Amino acid sequence: MKEKFIKSTLILIIGGAITKVLGMVIKIIMTRLVGLEGIGLYMLIFPTFSLFMSMSQLSLPVSISKLVSEEKYNNKKLVFSSFPIMMITNLILMVIILCCASFFANNLLNEPRVYLPILAISLVLPFEALSNLLRGYFFGKQRMFPHVVSHVIEQIIRLVLIILVIPTLMNKNIIYAVTFLILVNMVSELTSIFILLLFLPKNTTIKKSDLIPSSTNVRNILNISIPTTGSRLIGNVGYFLEPIIITFVLTTIGYSNTYILSEYGIISGYVMPLLLLPSFFTTAISQALIPVISKSYSNQNYSYTKKKLKQGILLSLLIGIPSTMIFILFPEFFLNLIYHTTEGSEYIRFLAPIFLLHYLETPLSSSLQAMGKAKETFLSSLKTTILRTISLFLLLFLNIGMWGFVLSLSISIIYTTYTNFRYIQKSFN
Questions:
Q1: N or C: where does the chain have the smaller number of CB atoms within 10 Å of the terminal CB?
Q2: Three-class SS state of 204
Q3: Cα–Cα dist 136/64, whole Å
């Protein structure tokens, strides 16, 4: 198990590094092709995209990963038992988007131009859900290579399509370009699904009986997925409300839509991706931890669970501390290198120390999921979202511009990390 954990972590870190570099290249090219206005529009609808993505997956990948890692079930039956749940969920969500896209664009986001991109979200959801479901199976088997290969090729496909198509669409209409940035996920996820299927065991055969969902499997899957989804949905609802609250409050106290779109685009499009750059290490560590901790904790091997958790936190600190120092000292250099601008450097200097806690929070929350602490993750997400939403609303009224958003983000990161750390401590008492 120790060798598997180290091997899995290394594969995920190397793959994550390649994927992150490709992601940054995509972000650079995307930013330069669609401009600040295009990025602002894209980031305005991204919380809506994230909310529906979270609902479409219904945390089935987490359920499959945990159950497969325990080696107590028929893996093929587990995967096929989750298919009907996933398809019904996605069908319902597609109908909701088609019916409510106009309301989201005109009434909630106060930006009619995002109507078409919101409609495009409905086409992406089933492909995103299916690819993540397959990844959940491979994570449970501690086979990280298929995930890495599919993710890297997926990013390459996305990069090529953006370079080839976006300039033409920008000559026609910026809305078409932003819509394509959403739809490109459909093609890349379809490619990812095909690659993941190639990595399934060669002797895999599908019988008619395999296609019939097992009631026991469905119950076990939903026992994990529903509380986990509830936890994620709460966080995504808060994220969804974020641009709505920002737009409402700042326009109410006199800020222009141009300022809001520009500053929100800088923070969401420049600052956040840069600060989250080291998180591919912590995400890789967390993904490798889930099957290991799930198996050891279910077998009541608590000393080994603690050991792996401490290793995950230590590795996250080894990555997080140098990254934090670099971002504090040289934000302009990285902004100029990656985005060809220095806009947002003051935000980075302020947020960099806070994000050190965020790097620690990733393995903490993953470990809680692996230990089956769905109630704890749900409560943590609920408390954090309430705190973040209330603080965002109040701080924006202080008439300090987008700094109210930055402060509310900082408060939520500090509180989430502390809360999850306390839940982890209680799990071993």
A1: C
A2: coil
A3: 6
